Amino acid sequence: MKEAVGAHKETTVSNPETGELKRVSARTAFMFPGQGTQYLGMGKHVCDHSPRSTAVWDCASDISGINVRKLCSKGPMKLLDQTRYQQIAITTVNMASLVELTHYSPMAADAVLGHSVGEYTALYCAGAIGMEDTFRAVNARARIMQQISSNSEGGMAAVIGPSHTEMQELLEGSDMATHISIANDNTPQQQVLAGPRRQLKTFCRSLMRLGHKVVQLPVNGAWHSSMMAPGVDAFATVLTGIPLHYPKIPVIMNRAGRPVSDPDLIRRYLSEHLSRKVLWAESMRLLVKIGVHQIVEIGPRKILSRMLSDFVFPQTITVSHIDDIFRRRSISLSKRMER
């Protein structure tokens, strides 16, 4: 059953740390995807046709030491699937697409959010972090997570069917609760599990016997689980040297499921988030409550857009993907040239 979400023009949200209440309203939201969306050829449109995004590709390559253009276009896929490279590549495509969109379109975001590493592009879009510092943070994050995953046998799997509460009950009713945890509460019907591969495989088999669909994710670690805890302090140290500012528009953070504006709290949530759950479903519900009527996914694939089908949104809400926007623009330009 899809979850119905009511719409309001404005809502009150509280700071999860201080309890301070704030009125928030918005019309357009940009959302940015994270790991698992990679494919060879991603970002080709902006790489080939957007001179404005050149600075993004160059900055990513300079800071990471990776030829990001070549990685995205030619791979190899085995390399692109590694978190060390994947996070930089996805962030680059997200940011390059954003730069191109904001150049030729009057469309502007009233609120932003990103899934996992996509959150860094959201912060950039909101003016909370500069371009170079975005790539410094993501590069450090990717290195730390790669190092931890190379010393462990962690994995992740998406489970289609159970709600967050139902999945928690299934875990607690098994002997796997100390090993497996919910890493992403994505939708009312999709939970992502993380943990040691052997235990994860065993638990997923039991879920399939119950009739649930299980999809193994193309990642090489148990992200957003206790297996990432060894990297939290190291990443927190890195972030102390990364300048952060108060966002110009609300940034709904994964760690809180609410807008967070204080730079120190943003910094804390970014580091803690390595080992904490992605509250994506809660973030989606909030978008509707604050009056968003247009949601635009900016980045490779349409995974986040498709996940929204698990919710019942008001008919006034539209969801689009950056590729469709670019395609419509190309068709429009072609027709003009034919005249």
From TrEMBL:
EC number(s) reported in the record: 2.3.1.39
Please list the reactions this protein catalyses. holo-[ACP] + malonyl-CoA = malonyl-[ACP] + CoA
Organism of this sequence: Desulfatitalea alkaliphila
Domain Malonyl-CoA:ACP transacylase (MAT) residue range list: 31-337
Q: What keyword terms does UniProt attach to this protein? A: Acyltransferase, Transferase
Ranges that cross the membrane: none
Pfam families, alphabetically?
Answer: Acyl_transf_1
Q: Where along the chain is the active site annotated?
A: 116, 224
Could you state a single Gene Ontology molecular function term? [acyl-carrier-protein] S-malonyltransferase activity
The Gene Ontology biological process annotation of the record reads:
fatty acid biosynthetic process
Q: Which family does it belong to?
A: Belongs to the fabD family.
**Which enzyme class, named as a word?**
transferase
Q: What is this protein called?
A: Malonyl CoA-acyl carrier protein transacylase
Which lineage? Answer: Bacteria, Pseudomonadati, Thermodesulfobacteriota, Desulfobacteria, Desulfobacterales
Domain of life, per UniProt, equals Bacteria
